[in-house]
Amino acid sequence: MKLSREEAADILSRVDHTLLKAFATWEDIEKLCDEAVRCKTASVCIPGCYVKRVSDKYKENLCVCTVIGFPLGYCDTETKVFEARKAVENGASEIDMVINVTDVKNKNFEAVEKEIGALREATKGKILKVIIETCYLTEEEKIELCHIVTRQKADYIKTSTGFGTGGATVEDVRLFKENVGPDVKIKAAGGIRTIEDAKAMIEAGADRLGTSALVSILSE
User: Fold this and answer.
1) How far is residue 46's CA from residue 43's CA, in Å, rounded to a whole number?
2) Which residues partner with 129 through β-bridges?
3) What residues make up the domain containing 33?
4) Which of 44, 90, 93, 181 could form a disulfide with 52 if both were Cys (CB 3.0 to 4.6 A apart)?
């Protein structure tokens, strides 16, 4: 699919350029960040251990996002709160937290809501995205989580970690759009590897795209 320069720039401005592999080296992270600066992506999404180093090097030239409770989400709330506060202290301006899916499966939505509220408090003034890992959830669970994320005033609801059994789908993005409040945006992540994927997610209602593949395609 051919795009105009303006269309490519619009998609890139929605991308959280992502590298979360366990074996990512500093050279890999630098390459990611240089690409993000050059292509004007929304952010880079990187492991917490690199946040301070990236923030110190790139300063205001780059928006730094990192992940909390990643990728399984079942550490306790106090641990996630500490991790989030440390990430903000180190220079992260966007936080992508993973919910405790076991609480959802145990129908303990009160615990899920309390935890999201605690992370919202810990990240005041920063962007908070809530990863609900849709591949493990029923439609009813997804809808309830849309309502919880809305009540707790998170900035985004996010489909996936990219480490589960499935990634973003157009159907899930549409479901989110129908069930979140007007102030909650949508981040689609996991398996977005082509321009066609990106356009489909945006048309369905996604405001951000978590991907490692699009920059190399669109920068051409």
Assistant:
1) 9
2) 96, 156
3) 5-218
4) 90
Strands 156-158 and 208-211: unpaired
- Over the stretch 153-209, which tens digit does the pLDDT of each residue have? 999 999 999 999 999 999 999 999 999 999 999 999 999 999 999 999 999 999 999
Catalytic residues: 96, 158, 187
Q: What's the token pair of residue 179?
A: 């069930």
Q: Is-contact 210 45, C-beta < 8 A?
A: yes
Record the tokens describing residue 163, joined without a space: 């480490």
| CATH number, domain with residue 203 | 3.20.20.70
Residues 139, 186, 75: CA angle, nearest 5 degrees: 70
Contact yes or no for 192/166 (Cβ under 8 A): no
- Please give the tally of structural domains in the chain: 1
Q: Is the entire prediction scored with pTM above 0.85?
A: yes
Q: CB neighbours (10 Å) of residue 97?
A: 26
| Residues of the chain by 3-state class (helix, strand, coil), percent to 5 | 50, 15, 35
Tally Cβ neighbours within 10 Å of residue 180: 21
Separation of first and last alpha carbons in the chain: 12
What type of residue is 175? L
Tokens describing residue 210: 């978590």
User: Which pLDDT score is estimated for 219?
Assistant: 80
Kindly report the number of other CB atoms within 10 A of residue 19's CB atom. Answer: 17
Strand partners, 14: none
